[in-house]
Amino acid sequence: MMLLGIFMATILVGLLYYVAGLGETITYRERMQDAADTAAYGGALLHARAMNVIALLNMTVASIFAVGVAAQAAIFLVAAAAGAAARECGPFNPGACLAAVCLTLIGIPDACGNADSKRSVARDVAQNAQSAARDLARATQLAAIGAAHDITTTRYAPPVSEAIALVGAIPIEDEDPSRACDEVLSFNGPSGGAGDMPLLVTADFAVREARRIASSCGAERYVNAGLGVPLTWLACPMVREDVDGRTQRVREGVRMGGSEFQLRVIARAGADAMPLDPNQERVSLLTWGQPDESGGLGRTADLLRDGTDLAVAQAEYYFDGDVDRGLWTWRMQWRARLRRIRAGGGGLCPPGVPGCGGLEQAFIH
């Protein structure tokens, strides 16, 4: 009984030793997968934030452009005020005659100079925003690659020793014609609420600018506030060339969920990181005295073993809203999420490789 007990205890210790090795291997595999997931999601999050910043730059251009539109509409309002004063001009109303002359000789040139100044600022802002969006798109791609390497090799080492991030450039291009007029002349602002009403705000600013200019002639009462909205509608297309080609849009032909919005990270363990050799020793201990019958499976086993040194993850950034694609770069609704990656679903396997599609059910993450 003592000899049998010693033999059984040896087998039990060997089994526990083997189970401990399995747990250690699984822990390392989970840590590798966590590294790949974190790097992929972090890169997608950087891209989502970059797209939100690009949308913010577009809205900033539209806001400054609205000031130029209002200044242009103020020219028309001052000219209309001069016409209204001229209609009231007569022998018994010399004040109207003086107001008409003053508005014509002083007010309209003043309004034109004011509009030129504000439109120049709008052009400068649009040009700077265009440069910033382009630089941000390039920098985000490099930042995602650097972040993936930093996350995997510093926070998850060991077992991860190196990582490769497959990141494409942000698919944006210059928007011509710009949607800036659509934003300025809308009754609903970026939040979608009826309380924004950019058109009414712009028209009100145009009326206040016209009255300020007309005040130097004592002719504020001739400025017709009711013309603010229609003259703003007229002025916006006339000055839209200031920002055409300066705002950004998602490149034509790109679909949401396409490869342009996907990021993949491949993490690899170091040569001594994964505890596979100790596990092999444990297996040999348990099968002591038994012949090796692996035969032709040895090469396959080695290939599978090499595969355990890799962890793959995929993430994407996407626009979280059901709106026209033209608004994708005009609303700050970009998000990031992890995606399932399939070996046979276009994730890892190149097209046309025989037998690769059969791995789809065997490898899903």
Would you kindly provide a written description of the structure presented here, covering whatever features stand out?
The chain has one domain. Strands 1-4-5-6 form a 4-stranded antiparallel β-sheet. Strands 2-3 form a two-stranded antiparallel ribbon. The chain is an alpha+beta fold. 36% of the residues are buried. 56% of the residues lie in helices and 10% in strands. It is built from 7 helices and 6 strands; from the N terminus they run H-H-E-E-H-H-H-E-E-H-H-E-E. The chain has helices at 2-88, 94-155, 180-184, 198-215, 228-239, 276-286, 297-307, and strands at residues 160-167, 172-174, 248-250, 262-269, 310-319, 334-339.
List its traits.
7 helices, disordered C terminus, two-stranded antiparallel ribbon, single chain, 365 residues, four-stranded antiparallel sheet, alpha+beta, rod-shaped
CA-atom Rg in angstroms: 34 Å
Residue runs with pLDDT of under 50 for 5 or more positions: 357-364
- Determine the mean pLDDT: 84
Count of helical stretches: 7
Helical residues, percent: 55-70%
Strand content: 5-15%
The description of the largest β-sheet is: 4 strands, antiparallel
SS elements, strand count: 6
List the domain count as a whole number. Answer: 1
**Structural class, judged by helices and strands?**
alpha+beta
What overall geometry do the principal axes of the alpha carbons give?
rod-shaped
N- to C-terminal distance:
50 Å
Strand order of the largest sheet: 1-4-5-6
Following the backbone from N to C, one meets helices and strands in this order, namely: HHEEHHHEEHHEE
